[in-house]
Every structure is written in C-alpha cells, then in structure tokens.
Write a structure and sequence with these properties.
The chain is mainly alpha-helical and 161 residues long. 68% of the residues lie in helices and 0% in strands. The chain starts with a helix and ends in a 16-residue tail after the last helix.
Length: 161
C-alpha cells in the first residue's frame, strides 16, 4: 500500500488538484450566475490547483516517457556520437532540474510573506510546487536512467498511447 502510494504520488496529487480545480471553477460559475455575489476565491484556488496539476503531471510524465522527444539529428549521427549526445542530454536535463529546484526554493522562501490577493495564502504554495516537482522529476529521471520502468494500463479508458 505504502509503496504504491509512493510509486504513484504524482498521479495522486495531480488528480486531487484537478478535483480542486473542477470544484472551484464549478462553484465560481454557480455563484456567478445563481447568487448575487460571485465567489471571489474560486479563481485563486483554481489557479493554485492548476499549477499543482501541471507540475505534478509533468513529473508523472517523466516516469512514462510522455514528454516529446525530437530525434531528427541524433538518429543521423554515428553510434558513438549518439551516445555522447544522449549523455550530454541527460546531464543537461539533470542540471536544469537542479536549477529549477534551487530557483523554485528561493522563490518559495521569498514568497512566504507575500500573500495571494483574496485568500491571503502565502505564495509559497505556488512556488513550492515548482521546487518539489522538479526535485521529483530529477528523482524519477534518475530512476528511469537506472532502468526503473512504469507502464500504462492499455485497458484503461484514459490511456492515450
């Protein structure tokens, strides 16, 4: 149970955030058209939830190799050059993930005292997701490089592969 929770952490959090987005937008629409006072907080909650969906979803896509791969040039190179380019790509991606963890952490720390406009939540809730998810992306990418595989269930209705 715990291993499955850890294994599908990104999908679980992204799914919960998507439920929050749908609920907030729905409530915002209902209050706008049915009551005299629209829910001012709905847009803010939907925005925060959407950021979480995007970043946790991007981390999940690392596991399933769902990010686009442009291989027009590499496939035309000789095998040794392809290996060098592949390792350069791995190093570049891991460096980018590390930079975004550092950058997101700095933004989150700086934003602790900056509240959102309506709910007055610290903006660290937004920027913290960036730092956390890029750290997860680095971990998942290293797991993939070490040979760890995740498979999508082709029988699921939501399977797009």
């Amino acid at each position: 149970m715990l291993s499955r929770l850890v294994d599908q952490f990104e999908e679980i959090v992204a799914s919960l955030a998507l439920v929050v987005v749908i609920a907030a937008v729905s409530w915002g629409v209902i209050t706008r058209y049915i009551t005299a006072q629209p829910a001012a907080w709905a847009s803010e909650v939907a925005t925060l939830g959407f950021a979480w969906v995007v970043f946790f979803g991007a981390s999940a896509c690392i596991k399933y190799h769902l990010h686009p791969n442009i291989d027009l040039l590499p496939v035309r190179l000789p095998a040794p050059a392809q290996r060098v380019l592949r390792w350069f790509n791995h190093a570049l991606l891991l460096a980018f993930f590390g930079f975004m963890v550092w950058f997101g952490t700095r933004f989150a720390i700086d934003a602790v005292d900056s509240p959102t406009a309506v709910l007055r939540l610290p903006l660290a809730w937004l920027y913290g997701a960036v730092a956390l998810c890029f750290a997860l992306m680095a971990i998942r990418y290293l797991q993939v490089l070490r040979g760890r595989t995740w498979t999508l269930d082709a029988a699921r209705e939501t399977y797009v592969g």
